[in-house]
Amino acid sequence: MGGAQIADLLLPGVAVQVDQLVLTDAEARVAVRSRAKSAVCSGCGQRSSKVHCYYQRTLADRPVAGRRVRIELRARRLVCGNEDCARRTFAEQIPALTRRHARRTEALTANLTDVALFLGGRPGTRLFQRMAIDTCKDTLLRLIRALPLPSSGLVPHLGVDEFAVRRGRTYATILIDMTTRRPIDVLADRAAATFASWLRDHPEVRIICRDRAGSFRDGAQAGAPQARQVADAWHLLNNLAQAVERVIGRHRADLRQPLTTHDGRSNDAPAPEGHGRTELDIHGRPRPLVARTRERHQQIHERIARGDSLRAIARDLQLSRGTVNRFAHAEEVDELLIAAVNRPSLIDDYRIYLHHRWMEGCTNASALTREIQRLGYRGDVSTVRRHLKPYRAGAIPATAPSPYLTVRRVTDWIMRRPEHLTDVERKGLEELCERNRVLETTVEYARRLALMIRERRNEHLALDVWIADVRLDGQRELRTLANGMRRDRAAVQAALTTTYTSGAVEGNVTRIKLLKRQMYGRANFDLLRRRILLSP
């Protein structure tokens, strides 16, 4: 095989002649020289063929068959024939092979850059070590920072959302072109003024898809008054579910009462000690959480009676404002203890199964744990042993204990489409509504709004009617939601009457979380911004 054929094989499209090829177990050294008769001066652009001198230049290239490749180029320095040029001599640069001061070929640099964008510094370095390429993390990061940022162009349809740079402390804003579903810019914070400033530089924006964050609403109104804001339907349903969950949480006492079983009999047999939620632990002592709840309730209400502000109480007791508000709104401590002693357990859904298996004669806790783990149980054997302790003491209920209803489960029943509920779930929800008028009205209002959001309809000003009804008769959590929707009425109504969503924005936020984990969460904002905008 001749030198020209070897050059075409190893360096396709590069005008060089291979003079020598040396192969070792770890490396391939290729001696090459330029085949061009002349070269272009880097100062004036005029071509020259007058050679001043030769010098040796070594370049790293992509590996071949697991071997590192070193290109030993016999480079030329030529004399510029233009008397007006500031350069008397210049070094020849071979297209697609060399750049000024470069120690790598263009092809290898492109590979390094692509992997750096995909993996980052340290992971990329570890991969290249296995590929017989010598590099370091700092080189990969420099390659990312050297890339030019893409131009955003015209963005008539914009998506916006926040993401955590440092969770709970620092947040940034991602902007998405909803037509291409690609990020076009990343803002260093989530302030309304920053978003408004960006929008003023892009007057072509006509649609803004966002969640219901107030900063984005205010920034859009200030920076792009001509744009139509569209709230995301999923976020509306999520806000509704959160409000419903808080309402049910205040009335969780009704969840403790047993539901009628599917055969029509009420399972109201007294649970043995250890099966019910009590204020005592398994040793008969008060639970620490119960004692602490009673003490805090008394302290907070004594301070309120003295006229202290909630802010001062929170500061002195080292509690959050939300916790102090919750204790202040609870007139009786029992309202708080219902939540404290009726927390859900991983074993709740398997109580009936364990009861039947015990009555069948299987009393081995380890064997029972393995059985319910195959059914989806995620706990360990110690929880099963604690559950079976009253059984071993002889306190076995005559009937299987009913599974406990949790706030999350009832919220799921309400937020799910009615036709997707099973007969048992539908009957259980009807029983809860019969017991408590508040839950009945909450179910009605939640399903009315959920239907409007899912079906994308707002006939005869149904949204305005819903807001008015909730403000008149709804619970305070739903009234808070209605007041927020009334302030953001235009965006909410657009969500009910258009097909615009923020799905592409949420997908990019998920991708950002992956990029952050690859960089161990320690990337500076400029590097994170470039990887977000440039990663494929």
Give a brief outline of the structure.
With 536 residues, the chain is of the alpha/beta class. The protein has helices spanning 3-10, 106-119, 121-130, 137-146, 192-200, 214-223, 233-250, 253-256, 288-305, 310-317, 321-329, 333-341, 351-359, 365-374, 381-392, 407-415, 423-435, 437-455, 462-473, 476-487, 489-497, 503-518, 525-534; strands spanning 16-23, 27-34, 39-40, 47-48, 51-64, 67-79, 89-91, 157-166, 170-177, 182-187, 207-210, 228-231.
How would you portray this structure in words?
- The strands form 3 sheets. Strands 1, 2, 5, 6 and 7 form a 5-stranded mixed beta sheet that branches.
- Helix content is 48%, strand content 15%.
- The protein has 536 residues and is α/β, with parallel strands linked by helices.
- Strand 1 and strand 2 form a beta hairpin.
- The protein has 4 domains: 103 residues, no CATH class; 110 residues, Ribonuclease H-like superfamily/Ribonuclease H (Nucleotidyltransferase, domain 5, 2-Layer Sandwich); 107 residues, no CATH class; 125 residues, no CATH class.
| Number of domain units | 4
Please report the number of helical segments.
23
Estimate the helix proportion, in percent: 40-55%
Q: How many β-strands, per DSSP?
A: 12
Radius of gyration: 35 Å
Oligomer: single chain
Largest sheet composition: 5 strands, mixed
The residue ranges in which pLDDT falls below 50 over 5 or more consecutive positions are 261-277, 280-284
**How much of the polypeptide forms β-strand, as a percent range?**
15-25%
